[in-house]
Amino acid sequence: MKVLVVDDQRSMRMISSTVAKSLGHEVFEVTCGQEAVDFCRDDKVDLILMDVEMPGLNGFEATKKIREQTKTWFPIIFVSAKTDPKFFAEGIQSGGDIYLFKPIIPEVLESMIKAMQRIASIQDELHSTKIKMELLAHQDKLTSLVNRRGFDNAMALEFEHAQIEKTSLSLIMIDVDHFKPFNDHYGHQAGDDCLVAVSKVLRESMCRPNDIVARYGGEEFAIILPNTSIESAVLVGQRIIEGFKNLAYKHEYSSTAAYITVSGGIAGLKGNTTPEELIQSADKVLYKVKESSRNNISL
User: Fewer CB atoms inside 10 Å of the end CB: C or N, the chain?
Assistant: First the structure.
């Protein structure tokens, strides 16, 4: 997990950071409430250890602002020397989840972090389950890939998830080269068999089970790569091209190669890009590739 420690006292930050690091978590430190608000606006956080009494924006006020600006829940543990029940109640009302008293007992803090990690893991599992159910509900009959409707729904879910988690998201749009002459000369049944073979190569070129391969329409396919940078998406594209070379699916009527090839365009999530703009961007690159070289998947 990415843990943010917020405390104006260096000694307190050191104790909390040491415990979190000992559990294998990535730890960041800030010294005041406003810095915590700014950090959460720009970066994903899985857990905050928040001091209450700080100059300027105190822990309760910072937590309210953080809850207002973030789209998803993550645990916030308050740490304070004040034991009055009214402070506990105020902390919960401001958006905190647990209230620990100073001085910090490392063993207690360690147990709390472990408990919060289990909750964070459940959130990730819920997202994965939602995606899996979406894919199972919308399958293309011919290829057994996700169909267009399933792609649209999965794209919306992964797009929202990437924005919330502040992670990368890449998309590859793919089109089979010279598919019309293949269909015209070999027949529609052979065309269907070819699309099934294409689907298999695309599936086998993926690195992880959460990568999504969809039949976008006709001989066009789409691949959603969650938490994947543009550079990694390029490597996936290279594996796909190599996969068709190894398959060597005969195509005597192609002007590009003696076997079935594909062209593709890659696009990545940037700033305020919408899902539709991401698809359009990848499509533009795809058609540039088809107009020039073909048998290539490019940025």
Answer: C
Q: Is 42 exposed, middle or buried (0-12, 13-18, 19+ CB in 10 A)?
A: exposed
| Alpha carbons 8 and 102: distance in angstroms, whole number | 14
For 103-114, the pLDDT digits (tens) are 888 888 888 888
Catalytic residue flag (residue 107): no
pLDDT digits (tens, 9 = 90+) for 36-90: 999 998 888 889 999 998 989 999 999 999 998 887 788 999 988 887 777 778 8
Q: How does 132-149 read in b/e, with b if 16+ C-beta sit within 10 Å?
A: eebbeebebeebebbbee
Residue 259 CB contacts under 8 Å (≥ 6 apart), including other chains: 244, 245, 247, 248, 249, 250, 251
Q: What does the pLDDT average to over 7-16?
A: 90
With CA atoms as reference, report the closest residue to 245 among 234, 258, 233, 236: 258
Domains and CATH numbers, the chain: 2-122 (3.40.50.2300), 138-298 (3.30.70.270)
Model pTM? 0.73
